[in-house]
Each structure stands twice: as structure tokens, then as C-alpha cells.
Amino acid sequence: MIPTITAFERSPDGGKGLARDTRVRWALEEVGQPYEVRLVSFAAMKQPAHLALQPFGQIPTYEEGDLVLFETGAIVFHIAERHTGLLPGDADARARALAWMFAAVNTVEPPILELSIAHVLEHDKPWNQERLPLVGERVRNRLEQLSAHLGDGEWLEGAFSAGDLMMVSVLDRLRSGILDEFPNLSAYVARGKARPAYKRAFAAQHALYAGKNR
Ligand code: GTB
């Protein structure tokens, strides 16, 4: 069965791959699963039909027959469980990969999101100049810890897994700046984005938005 995901009708990033459907596309590409995309407007996202799929009125969603999923961590985990290639066969190694997926969305992504909000949505608030360094430090702390774990390893736990897919996707939100302070993490993100599956995922979303839709 061909799954259908949802994505922005007009992506605010103009196709830079920052919207979260990119990580779902990437997972589907990694396992060789074709998929369809339904584009949703910001207004439609808040309507009952979409809220029935995604209670928080966001993209992406994932539909496969009777199954409807939201939350990219859950979607990527579902894809990884149903196909080979994104989770190790060994039960303990699988559990470790899952731990990294949670770490990506639960420990690393929140401060990165805060920083992004501080830059994009709160830049004109009178308190922002005072707050920005604090938020930046929280991101820096997490990156220091992650960088220490990764060391000179290629991936977080030996072979590439859904944990790396999620972590690279989360770190990619930083794009430059703080991430450049951690050369092993910059190289890690570049390694992830050099994978053919990522390139196909990126190209698919880029083709929808590039030069338009902003
Ligand atoms: N925790 C959820 C998940 O992982 O699935 C978060 C989903 C989410 O934040 N979706 C965003 C959304 O639908 C799109 S990806 N927002 C609309 C809304 O909440 O009303 C976040 C995003 C949007 C835009 C950029 N950008 O332009 O750079 C980057 C990331």
C-alpha cells in the first residue's frame, strides 16, 4: 500500500528542506518505499478534516490504509519497523537506536526550536537581546554533549539508523552558526545529507517550493 504524507502547500522556507516532512520523506527514501504527498494550506491545517489526522493542526501526517499517524518520531519509527535498513536486527542495538530517536526529538530539538523562535519570531521583542545568549547557551551545551558522544565516529551507534536520521534532521535546523563550532557535528550532518536517500527527499520537496510559494 502506498502511504500518503502531508506537507505545506506553501512552505515558509521556500524548499530549503527545513519543514518536518523532509525527515519522513528521507525515511521513506531510505527504505525504498514510494509515497504520495497531499499539500495542505495553513487554513486547512486548522480545519476538522486535518485535525482528525493531526490533533495539533500541523504537518506532516502519514496515512497508510486505516492507519493514521502524526509526530515525525512515531512516523519514522513506524517506517523503520516495517522495513529493513533503518533499525538494527539485534534487540539491544534496536533499543539504542530508538533511544537516539527520542534524544533527537526530546533532548536536542527543543532548545534548537527555542533558538529558532527567538531568531525568527521574537527578534523585535524588547527582551530578546537579553534572552538570545541564554537560549544559545542551552543549544551549545547540548551540542557539546552530543559532540563528545560522537567523537570521530561516523554515526551515533556504529551503522546508520533511524536515530541518525532523526538527529541529523534536528541538527540541520541550525544550518550554520553554532553548529560550525562543532566540526564533528557539522561533518555528521553533511554525511547524512550526502546520502542518496536524503538527496532524493530534499529534491522532491524542493521541486514543490523553489522560487515560489513563500
Ligand atoms: N512534533 C511535531 C512533529 O515532529 O511531527 C511537530 C510538527 C510541526 O512542527 N509541524 C510544523 C507545522 O505544521 C511544520 S515543520 N507548523 C504549522 C503550525 O503549527 O501551525 C516546522 C517548520 C516550519 C517551517 C520551517 N521553516 O520555514 O524554516 C521550519 C520548520
- The top level CATH class name of the largest domain: Mainly Alpha
Please report the total strand number as a whole number: 4
Structural domain tally: 2
Q: Which runs of at least 5 residues are low in confidence (pLDDT < 50)?
A: none
Bound ligands, each once: S-(P-nitrobenzyl)glutathione
State which percent range the strand residues make up.
Answer: 5-15%
Short description:
It contains 9 helices and 4 strands, in the order βαβααββαααααα.
Key descriptive features of the protein:
214 residues, alpha+beta, Glutaredoxin, Glutathione S-transferase Yfyf (Class Pi), Chain A, domain 2, 2 domains, four-stranded mixed β-sheet, 9 helices, 4 strands, binds S-(P-nitrobenzyl)glutathione
What does this protein look like?
With 214 residues, this protein is α+β, with helices and mostly antiparallel strands. It has 2 domains: 4-85 and 197-209, Glutaredoxin; 91-195, Glutathione S-transferase Yfyf (Class Pi), Chain A, domain 2, CATH 1.20.1050. The protein is built from 9 helices and 4 strands, in the order βαβααββαααααα. The chain has helices spanning 21-31, 42-45, 48-51, 72-82, 91-120, 128-150, 162-172, 183-193, 196-209, and strands at residues 4-8, 36-40, 61-64, 67-70. The protein has a 4-stranded mixed β-sheet with strand order 2-1-3-4. The longest helix has 30 residues, at 91-120.
